[in-house]
Write a structure and sequence with these properties.
This protein has about 500 residues and is α/β, with parallel strands linked by helices. The chain has helices at about 15-20, 85-90, 105-115, 120-125, 145-150, 190-200, 235-245, 260-285, 320, 345-350, 360-365, 435-460, 465-475, and strands at about 60-65, 95-100, 135, 155-160, 175-180, 205-215, 250, 255-260, 295-300, 325, 325-330, 335-340, 380-385, 400, 405-410, 415-420, 465. The longest helix has 28 residues, at about 260-285. The structure holds zinc ion (ZN). Zinc ion binds near residues 67, 68, 107, 301 and 302.
């Protein structure tokens, strides 16, 4: 394995990352080479209500969200490139969930489902706020796990890397420290620096630390050295692209042309870069003794099209945009693979089954998600849907219900499809099987109705950004609008800035 330097300090000496990240997190060691130098000035932090003094001896919680990370571009999920060796090392000590199918391939709705344990129609966030989605505001019946833990004495801190997760989103609620990207996006090295700086001064009370990485999201700017070796596997990547019927060329809504081969390499290079930062973060946590008794959740918020199904970005309901990695590490929990589909609302109900956290009963009472490891869990299909932004691009509202072996799809224009993952894992050709399709669609529609009804019961107060707020974001470069479709022009490909 070629050693990869971090982007922030290209002149630093090579460091044996894989020697530090060994077979499990137990092998993380204090590292003298971490130098939090040349940090950007601290960003303003949210002013929260002060929590009561911590009095528990509860586990720390470390949540890592990997934006735009396709499960099938990770070796642990079958990819031929070792794009994330640090994550691989963590996975050796983790529960690795085979098929996390997220409810929406859009950043804010997916993260809101993660932190609340409910579905998008239940929390009401159906798009990123800068694209017309509503920001999350809790109610008496619906709050994030963060707020619950903060109320029980946890130190809560978040370090996010992109506009959809800034303080306009509502996702910052419950965090005593909320350190967001100062611009539309920040690189993972800067986010890691900020997080480690906070960890260095964090009190020894239990903490919930959330670090969000955005590097795999377009635009791809990882230094060329992160592509090292990719030019040696031209045959393998061509075979991979051919088997997945990847379109040679697509276009983004902005008109930018996306060449498939270049996109694969640039995207995988960003995964490597992000992995490098992930390793720095975990080494830093280990050096501070914050991995000794810790619940660790690493989860992707959605995947990426990479020209599959003629889509360079995400926001739709194809497998490659919904299937995301999920690793959970808990004290005393044996590493293993976990088969079967689950969704974002299930992540914390499942993880909380492995540890005892104060307030977890309160969270589980509101959650619609299930503990998929519970003895009484009955496998069920999971719902996914397109984001409301897709309507602007002429894509009808579309839902899918994914079970362990197949997936049905129905859209507002009346079209339906059935995909048999047992024989067609890449969703290359729908099958005709009314005996499976019709009951699946009926069940899915009933789930949508039930979720909308429960959303009204939960009553999260929701609000859209004002025109002035949208304009402010536009001036900051947060809002990238594609030209609206015209009647005569071909339908533009859906957006990727989700
Ligand atoms: Zn995202």
């Amino acid at each position: 394995m070629v050693w990869i330097q971090d982007r922030s300090n290209p002149m630093s000496p090579s460091r044996p990352m894989l020697a530090v990240v060994a077979a499990s997190i137990a092998t993380f060691t204090a590292c003298a080479w971490f130098e939090p130098a040349a940090l950007p000035p601290p960003e303003p932090e949210a002013a929260p209500d002060a929590p009561p003094p911590a009095s528990t001896n509860s586990p720390d919680v470390v949540l890592i969200t990997l934006d735009t990370t396709r499960a099938d571009h990770l070796k642990r999920y079958g990819y031929f490139r070792d794009t994330m060796p640090g994550l691989e090392a963590l996975a050796d000590g983790a529960l690795v969930f085979d098929r996390l199918i997220v409810p929406m391939a859009t950043t804010l709705p997916s993260h809101t489902s993660l932190l609340t344990g409910v579905w998008p129609h239940e929390h009401g966030v159906l798009g990123n706020v800068e694209h017309g989605g509503e920001r999350f505001i809790p109610s008496d019946h619906l709050q994030s796990l963060v707020s619950i833990l903060a109320a029980h004495g946890y130190q809560t801190a978040a370090f996010t890397s992109a506009a959809p997760l800034n303080t306009d989103s509502g996702i910052q609620r419950g965090f005593q420290t909320f350190n967001a990207a100062p611009k539309a996006e920040r690189s993972g090295d800067q986010t890691t620096d900020a997080a480690l700086r906070w960890v260095a001064d964090a009190p020894r009370t239990p903490m919930l630390l959330w670090v969000h990485y955005y590097d795999p999201h377009n635009p791809w700017t990882a230094p060329a050295r992160f592509r090292e070796g990719f030019d040696q596997d031209g045959g393998a990547i061509r075979d991979w692209m051919e088997s997945h019927q990847v379109a040679r060329v697509t276009h983004r809504p902005t008109g930018e042309q996306v060449n498939a081969r270049g996109a694969m390499d640039a995207y995988d290079a960003e995964l490597r870069f992000m992995d490098n930062q992930l390793t720095r973060l975990f080494d830093g946590l280990a050096a501070r003794g914050r991995l000794d008794k810790t619940l660790i959740v690493l989860v992707g918020d959605h995947g990426e099209g990479l020209n599959q199904h003629n889509e360079p970005g995400h926001g739709l309901v194809w497998e490659e945009q919904l299937h995301s990695p999920l690793l959970v590490i808990a004290p005393g929990a044996a590493a293993r693979r976990v088969p079967g589909v689950l969704s974002m609302p299930d992540v914390f109900p499942t993880a909380l089954g492995l540890v005892d956290l104060p307030g977890e009963a309160e969270f589980l009472a509101q959650a619609s998600g299930k503990d998929v490891l519970a003895a009484d869990y009955t496998p069920r299909g999971v719902l996914s849907q397109t984001s409301i932004r897709q309507l602007k691009f002429g894509v009808p509202q579309t839902y899918t219900l994914t079970s362990d072996t197949f997936k049905c799809e129905w859209a507002a224009d009346g079209t339906t499809s059935l995909w048999d993952h047992a024989s067609d894992p890449y969703e290359l050709a729908p099958v005709t099987d009314a005996a499976r399709l019709d009951p699946c669609v009926s069940e899915g529609k009933a789930l949508v109705d039930a979720q909308i009804a429960r959303g009204k019961e939960l009553g999260g107060h929701r609000e859209k950004l004002s025109d002035a707020e949208i304009e402010r974001l536009r001036q900051l470069g947060y809002v990238e609008e594609a030209p609206p479709p015209t009647k005569d022009a071909p339908k533009p490909p859906p957006a990727d800035q989700e």
